[in-house]
Amino acid sequence: MLNNKKFLSNTILYSIGEIVPRALALLLLPILTTYLTTREYGINSYTTSVMTFVFVITSLSLNTYILKQYYKVDSIEERKNLVGTVFYFILLFNGLLLIIQYLVFPSLISFFKINIPFYPFFWLAILNNFFDVIAIIPLVIYRVNENAKGFILVSLSKTILQYALVLILVVHFKYGLEGSYYGRLLVNVPFVFVYAYQLYKHGNLKLDFKIIKSALRFSLPLLPGSISYILISLSDRVFLEQYISLDELGVYSVAFTLALTLNVIIQALYKTIEPILFKEHNQPNFQNVNLRLYKSYLALLLIGGFGMAIFSKEVFIIATSKNFLMGYRLVPFLIISVLISGTNLYLDMLLIANNKQKIVSYTTILSGIISVLANFVLIPILGYYGAIITSIVSFLVVNIICQRLVFIKHKYFLSQIVALLLIAFLPTLYECIFTFEGLFIHILLKTSLFIAFSTLILIIFQIDPRKLVKNRLAI
Length: 475
Hints:
Elements: H1 4-35, H2 38-59, H3 62-69, H4 76-111, H5 118-134, H6 136-144, H7 148-172, H8 177-202, H9 209-219, H10 222-243, H11 246-260, H12 263-280, H13 286-310, H14 312-319, H15 331-353, H16 357-382, H17 384-405, H18 413-433, H19 439-460
Helix pairs in contact: 1-7, 1-12, 2-5, 2-10, 3-6, 3-9, 4-5, 4-9, 5-8, 6-7, 7-8, 10-16, 11-15, 12-13, 12-15, 13-15, 13-18, 13-19, 15-16, 15-17, 15-18, 16-17
Membrane topology: Multi-pass membrane protein
Transmembrane segments: 12-33, 45-66, 86-109, 121-144, 151-175, 181-200, 220-239, 251-270, 297-320, 326-347, 359-378, 384-401, 413-433, 439-461
Main location: membrane
């Protein structure tokens, strides 16, 4: 039995958790750009990129191990030992890396002639990263207990307080870029007590080397794949900067940002589904649960993707200046790669549940290699369309491999291809045919298309939306 109402409410809550930080960042952008220079934004962007790599290395994907292993131990005491041991190991490992970074980074900055001082920017960025990493396991505790409200309360309150304090320090006290780093840090520190309370309730702070060995055996194969995924996300910008104008790069970046808003749905579903998959994995009815979740996951992704694609022009008209308007043409094609990547995320969860995490890492590395090589070849010829094609191909290769390696009663592969083609080309075809003026009329027509597409998807995946209001659903 799966509480379908809880599934829906958790998805909504996780969606709110994804939307609110993005909305706050968007609202604060025009304010902060008034008080920070372009050089300061460059420093912030650079340190953020470096810390993204460091975060992946320091977290070691151990949160995924907790999610997978938590439901395999029966007693409360064993679960507390699992949570406490993994957290304690992360705490000690990150403490060691914190010292190493402080000793090594100044020399690296000097050696590579990076025009950013270690103090205060890298120093503060490293410290903030330390607190972000130790928050991983306490937040996972909310997820394994399917406590979406608690998760959102903690993560959102932290985010809102950080933005508020950054605004105060930068705007009111004129601290400049340092105010941004200190704003995050001053909120990170007291939240340690929130994490400590979670660990007090749900974990035994001890080192069980058997658990550590098992956790590392599970998580280390995932590390190269995680790093490769970051490379996939960044390589197109590196190549595009060399082969297209800054104006074109700006248009592409805005279009890419809009396409990535689909990650709100993807991450919300992922945070909801992952604990359920791992919890039900060893149960006799797992494949029925898996099929039901897979169909719901795909349907929501495809419907959300089509909505963003079909209304992309209206979003650009309302939210951007006319200089960026042509970017709406790129959004439907960019969304395809986001949708395929989102589908891969579900398949990866199944592979990890089946103890095939090495395959996840290998396929991600393969995708990274394809991405770098294809960008090198296609971008000089096709510009940002080369980057779009590269992204689609690299994720599609991984999708095909993973589809063959996981078992799902009905994979709907052909249905997905047809839906992706509709998402890519129907918005473009619409704009070619309906060239008349009138924003309101266009919104009405596109809403009709959206309803028709959504209905088609629900029929294909045999989903009755009326069942979403039922309290319990046997699957």
